[in-house]
From TrEMBL:
Source organism superkingdom: Bacteria
Cofactor: Zn(2+)
One Pfam family this sequence matches: AstE_AspA_cat
Keywords: Hydrolase, Metal-binding, Zinc
InterPro entries: AstE_AspA_cat, N-alpha-Ac-DABA_deacetylase
Transmembrane segments: none
Source organism (scientific name): Undibacterium griseum
Name assigned to this protein: Succinylglutamate desuccinylase/aspartoacylase family protein
Length: 331
């Protein structure tokens, strides 16, 4: 049986009253469907008149990567959430997605990107950097982004993504040898860490990624749906009770990404996101027998035993005082 024809789909809602321009995306990775379910639920509620857009401009993208979604897998030709930039000469399917999605993102001020993860673990939110004028990811909307993140209904926040990627990419570039295969060369591109939220910030907006839980977790679509409603209410785009502000969120900062070098690199136990790491703790064994140990105490996130050689194997985080500093600065 032939696969159904592919197309790009977005749904726009415009209020008579001026307000924020919000875009909500699902299935950037095709096997992460909680956002798709939540977005389509919201569309049905709006079609029935039970939820009404009172101000602003809302765009809903239930499936950002239709090829990956059709296949029920993370990617089509490559990971859409890496090197998300328009392509003058599209080669991979995700290049075509980028040529459609990037201009769409640029039309908006705010992005809520809905994801899930492979292993077990609790939902959490990924945010961008603090305000800065640095070369990696200059940013001026950290306050608005953090206020949104603290109202999504989750108890953990993680930052430090792109700066950590810059270090990881630098290591990849150093290890490239003559005749490296195209995948290895692409993974060593300095733009490799740019996904939906990073692209959104580069256009002057702000954005968060909500990791709603494990892919098949029955509660993940509800986590995603509640986050959409909370965001709309917080931005004043729909009526509703003000969402709870999670003052006691645990804040973590990614400080390193560890790649898998060989298919036979293995973890010493089945790690889960947010498992505690003690300084010097044994995490995995390389194909050559060398040990991979925790450099500092912290927490593991995104452990991926099924990662391919040259891909991210796991990330490590440390506690951040970012939220504490924000709360202390408020009157």
């Amino acid at each position: 049986m032939n696969a159904a024809p592919l197309f790009f789909e977005s749904h726009r809602y415009t209020s008579l009253q001026a307000g924020p321009r919000l875009i909500v995306t699902g299935a950037v990775h095709g096997n992460e469907t909680c956002g798709t379910v939540a977005i389509r639920r919201l569309m049905a509620e709006m079609a029935a008149g039970r939820i009404v857009l009172s101000s602003g401009f809302l765009t809903l993208v239930p499936v950002a990567n239709p090829l990956a979604y059709q296949r029920g897998q993370r990617q089509g030709d490559r990971n859409l959430n890496r090197r998300l930039i328009p392509a003058a000469t599209p080669v991979e399917f995700e290049d075509h997605v980028a040529n459609w999605l990037c201009p769409l993102l640029a039309e908006h001020e705010v992005l809520l990107d809905l994801h899930s993860f492979r292993g077990e673990g609790e939902a959490f939110v990924l945010v961008g950097p603090e305000n800065n004028q640095g070369a990696i990811e200059p940013f001026t909307h950290a306050g608005a982004e953090l206020a949104m993140a603290m109202r999504l209904g989750v108890r953990r926040m993680v930052d430090g993504w792109l700066s950590t990627y810059a270090r990881g990419v630098a290591r990849r570039q150093q290890s490239l040898g003559p005749g490296a295969d195209p995948v290895a060369v692409a993974n060593a591109d300095a733009r490799f860490g740019v996904g939906t939220t990073e692209y959104m910030r580069s256009t002057g907006g702000y954005a968060v990624t909500l990791e709603c839980g494990q892919h098949q977790a029955p509660e993940a679509p509800e986590v995603a749906y509640r986050a959409i409603l909370n965001t709309l209410i917080h931005l004043g785009m729909i009526e509703g009770d003000s969402p709870e502000v999670m003052h006691e969120m645990e804040a973590l900062r990614i400080y390193d990404v560890i790649d898998k070098f060989h298919a036979d690199d293995r973890f010493v136990r089945p790690w889960r996101s947010f498992d505690e790491l003690q300084p010097g703790e044994l995490i995995g064994i390389r194909h050559d027998g060398s040990e991979v140990r925790a450099e500092f105490g912290g927490r593991m996130i995104f452990p991926d035993s099924a990662a391919q050689a040259g891909e991210e194997w796991f990330y490590v985080t440390r506690h951040s005082d970012r939220i504490d500093r924000v709360m202390e600065s408020q009157p």
